[in-house]
Design goal:
The chain is mainly beta. The protein has one domain (about 1-20, about 35-125). The chain has 1 helix and 9 strands. It has one helix at about 1-20; strands at about 30-40, 45-55, 55-60, 65-70, 75, 80-90, 95-105, 105-115, 115-125. The strands form 2 sheets. Strands 1, 4, 5, 7 and 8 form a 5-stranded antiparallel beta sheet that branches. A 4-stranded antiparallel beta sheet has the order 3-2-6-9, with helices on one face. A hairpin with a 2-residue loop joins β2 and β3 (about 55-60). The N and C termini lie far apart (about 35 Å). The model is unreliable at about 15-25 (pLDDT under 50).
């Protein structure tokens, strides 16, 4: 089950990076400070997070608990998209997971998931 969840998370994250580019996308003209966060409902357990910008993902495994935050990263000028995907296990069908992207200290995007197998993602275009 864990292998399947991780495989689905990896596929979801890969599709986010490849699916967000459009012919009219314009790169960011300045750098940005970006932080990714995840919050799960009580009793849930965050297990894996994949986050980054453009084609520069970082994977963090063996996570535990109901909250997770990435270190602040500097996304260079010329970047197009920041994205995060997080996987967790809920305690029941009403469990929830929220993934957030903060750019220069401001919440820009949020994604949610509910159920016993939680997988949420968010993507922000600069």
């Amino acid at each position: 089950m864990k292998f399947l969840r991780n495989a689905l998370l990896t596929l979801m994250f890969a599709s986010i990076f490849t699916g967000c580019s459009k012919d009219d996308d314009k790169p960011s003209s300045s750098s940005h400070k970006v932080t990714f966060k995840a919050i799960a409902s009580t009793g849930s357990n965050i297990e894996i997070a994949v986050y980054g910008y453009d084609s520069n993902p970082t994977t963090v495994t063996s996570l535990t608990g109901t909250t997770w935050s990435s270190p602040e990263i500097t996304v260079p000028a010329g970047s197009i998209v920041a994205t995060a995907a997080v996987s967790a296990t809920g305690v029941n069908a009403s469990s929830s997971l929220k993934v957030q992207i903060f750019v220069d200290g401001e919440l820009k995007k949020e994604g949610t998931s509910t159920g016993e197998i939680l997988s949420a993602s968010a993507t922000y275009s600069f």
